[in-house]
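Dear support,

I submitted the protein below through the web form. The confirmation email said the job was done, but the results page showed an empty box. After a refresh the structure appeared. I'm attaching both so you can tell me whether what I see now is the final result or a partial one.
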Amino acid sequence: MQRWRGLEDIPEGWGRSVVTIGSYDGVHRGHQLIIGSAVERARALGVPSVVVTFDPHPSEVVRPGSHPPLLAPHHRRADLMAELGVDAVLVLPFTREFSQLSPADFVVKVLVDKLHARTVVEGPNFRFGHKAAGNVETLADLGATYDYDVDVVDLFASGDAGGGAPFSSTLTRRLVTEGDVTGAAEVLGRPHRVEGVVVRGAQRGRELGFPTANVETLPHTAVPADGVYAGWLTVLGEGDPEAMPAAVSVGTNPQFDGTERTVEAYAIDRVDLELYGLHVAVDLLARIRGQEKFETLDALTDRMREDVDRCRTLVAEADAAGATPRV
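What the results page shows now:
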């Protein structure tokens, strides 16, 4: 799959293509429906499929300080899109100037002059252009002028997790914020992932017999509610990465009067790991309990053993069911 940043990266002589546009944060099941439809349409027409997305999130440029928590960084989104069969991903730097483009100017500048769109595939709530003035009807009207057609893909309901609401990044962020990573996985179609570089912490976990990887998460990451979670820890960038069963603690460490929220993952039964400076992924399966402060350290370590046993069981069941996350 080709990965482009900015219109200038598009190869000279690029022909007709099927295009879909959106932030696509999380590449959740609704996004998968749209992107999958674009891939199918492109294959039927014998042309490449292109996903157009933005960096930073448009809301941060339009309303500084409003950047939403991110469900997946751009490299992760691109990997997920590649799994869906996308031929190219175009990340457009979203600037104040770019935000001023009218819907018609956006269509000409991106879809017509550069990507030579044959078909544009979108969800029913797609908005674009200055002040989000354009919608799918605008897109179709402009298509009549510029020789492309528009396919609109309806989004399915999200089931029990979202109370029947359509799949959406907003719903997924809410579920993650509430600690309902099981519900978030239902919308995403996979466990919610937090990733970053392992940094040195207070090393209390090692002293208690549970050495943890203290993950410095990427900016704007959607970190779940404080608590203990079952999941997997994976070292990224290796030749044959292993998703290791893990017990994950999210919170401020109230036992030690901490104030900074951290994400710490203990690779269950692995005390031989040296992870400092490595980029890791933490995939979250289920929330075990909320954050607590115990009367004594012995009470804490007893509960940690119980948590680890519970996590070991849950992850083993998920692995047996084929639910181990794809790396």
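Response: this is the final, complete result; the empty box was a page-load delay. The mean pLDDT is 92.
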